[in-house]
Structures are given as structure tokens and as C-alpha cells.
Design goal:
The chain has 187 residues and is mainly β. It contains 2 helices and 13 strands, in the order E-E-E-E-H-E-E-E-E-E-E-E-E-E-H. The protein has helices at 40-43, 170-173, and strands at residues 5-9, 16-20, 23-25, 28-30, 50-56, 62-68, 76-82, 85-91, 102-107, 113-117, 121-127, 132-138, 147-149. The strands form 3 sheets. Strands 1-2-10-7-12-5 form a 6-stranded antiparallel β-sheet, with no helix packed on it. A 5-stranded antiparallel β-sheet has the order 9-8-11-6-13, with no helix packed on it. It is globular, with a radius of gyration of 16 Å.
Amino acid sequence: MGSRVNILLTKLHGVVIVETAPIVDHRGTFTRLFCESELADVICNRRIVQINYSRTARAGAVRGLHLQRAPHAEMKLVRCLKGRVFDVAVDLRTGSQSYLQWHAEELTPENQRMLIIPEGCAHGFQALEPDSELLYLHTSPYSPAAESGVRFDDARLGIPWPLPAVDLSPRDLLLPTLDASFSGFPA
């Protein structure tokens, strides 16, 4: 089976979109969701060590913006399995040329896109359809002590969420905003 992966760069260094093309026949479809060798130039020497799944029941629900601090910083590979999401990466890396910029991508099962978010970038999403499901591949295991993030509605970021935000977790409501003293995370 030949390569069916197309890697698209975004304005945020290290944040890439991976397009996959399904094989379609009379039985249905087959899609390779992850191939280490095809993504070697993106994931480099990292290993996938954890895979998570989320289902978001209500359209408009926002999760994030989350990241893990070093030494537990992680790259995330995010794909929508069902529904539709507005998926966002925010560059919080000190010294990055795209510091405090964000990139959003609509992920659906139909468009076969995956967003790859490197260490030092926060991640969040808004469900655009009820019962949206995401699959996450992580290069570092979850560490509660390394949790960090930024509020989804931070004025400095100005992310235009497509729907009114609903169903935020208490944890996400307590995430800080980017005030003048915020200096980012090491790249």
C-alpha cells in the first residue's frame, strides 16, 4: 500500500495538518490513521506513548486550551472520528516567531485531516456537532503536576469560536489569561 499522506504546513512552526486519503471500494473505506515512517520528518525521534479518546456531547462545548509543561511536554496528534470540531493550536513558546499566534482547523471524518501540535503549544477545541469524537496520540504520558494552559476566551489571543461557548469544565474556567507577566514556555 503506497503512501497516502499529505503534510501541510501552517503559520505556526511545528503545527502541521496531515491529510490522509482513504482507499474506497464496494465494501467501504480503509484509512491509515498513523504511520510512523510516513510522519518521521514531523515526529522525529518521538514515540507515541499514550492514546486518548474523547466524546463531547453538546455542540458549542469547548475543551482547553491545554498543554503540559516540561519535562512532560508532549506533541499531540489529533483526529476527529465522528462529528465536527473547530480544533485550535496556540503557540506559547518563548522565542518562537509565531509566539501567541494560533491556528484553527475544522476536523471531520470526511476531510480525513489530523492536526499535529508540538510541545509548547496549547490545544483546545469546540464541538460543532453533538457527540463529536476525537482520537489523540501523545508523545508523553499525562502528568497532573505538569498541567497548564490558557483560557479559551483570552482577549490577547482573540480566537473567534464559531458557536457560543458552553459546557466548560471547572478546570478550564480556572485557567489563567495571558497577562503582561506571561513569558511563555521554553521552545
